[in-house]
Input
Amino acid sequence: MHNIMVLNAKGGCGKTTISTTLACYFAGQGYKTALMDYDPQNSSHHWLDMRKPSQPQIRSIDAARPRAGMTRTWQLHTGVETEVVVIDTPAGVTGGRLVELFNKADSILIPVMPTVIDLQAVEGFLTELMRFAKNRLHGKRVAMVINRVRFKTATYEKIEALSARLGIPLIGSLRDTHNYAIAMETGMGICEMKSGVTSKDRKQWQPIINWLHEAIPGKEPGQATTFSESPGWQPEAKSVALS
Ligand SMILES: Nc1ncnc2c1ncn2[C@@H]1O[C@H](COP(=O)(O)OP(=O)(O)OP(=O)(O)O)[C@@H](O)[C@H]1O
Ligand SMILES: [Mg+2]
Output
């Protein structure tokens, strides 16, 4: 089982968007997938609730609050058959909470938006994370993704420089597009939406997926795993109204 955590203390940088997109991708590829939500806002779970029974199944695990009458271990139990767990985390994670989450992850994706405020915030967050992670990486993988890119600005270049300075690879950048809002409103993922309108996004996801597949074997040995194919489910034409 591989735990992919989407983490950044900064709010609104795309943690839930990236978590739901990934859960959808892995489920669509035939992996037994769970989406674990540590955020009391439960945004990931609202998205899961919108999914139709005909869509590839994603198991829902609410990790935000302890459940009455259930041990924490049982509450977070993903099931022995689960192959990929995507973990959505809340904003404002620091200190002991950060340590607790860090310990649960195999791969950590850090979304950052190319704005001055987000750059300053992520610099502080990464410094704390790396201080803690030093000597504790134990095979954990950490990478950054720039999210909501419109142009390659000076701030974008500063994020590239930060990545090089801290030795945290920058593995992808995602454009700013309404497609993600539509996906969130309809319980879909980019890989389930019409390929014509999402082709740019699918291309942008490929290096992120490649990086994850360095640690998660493909379903078909020797076969390239591409973000453009989600064989498990084809959307009904009228459920996708993209402009
Ligand atoms: N690449 C993108 N293009 C356009 N809109 C995006 C993109 N990524 C995220 N958004 C939008 O930005 C908003 C915040 O995204 P999201 O909820 O994923 O962030 P978050 O980090 O999970 O926020 P929070 O810290 O509150 O949990 C949402 O309205 C989402 O649709
Ligand atoms: Mg969120």
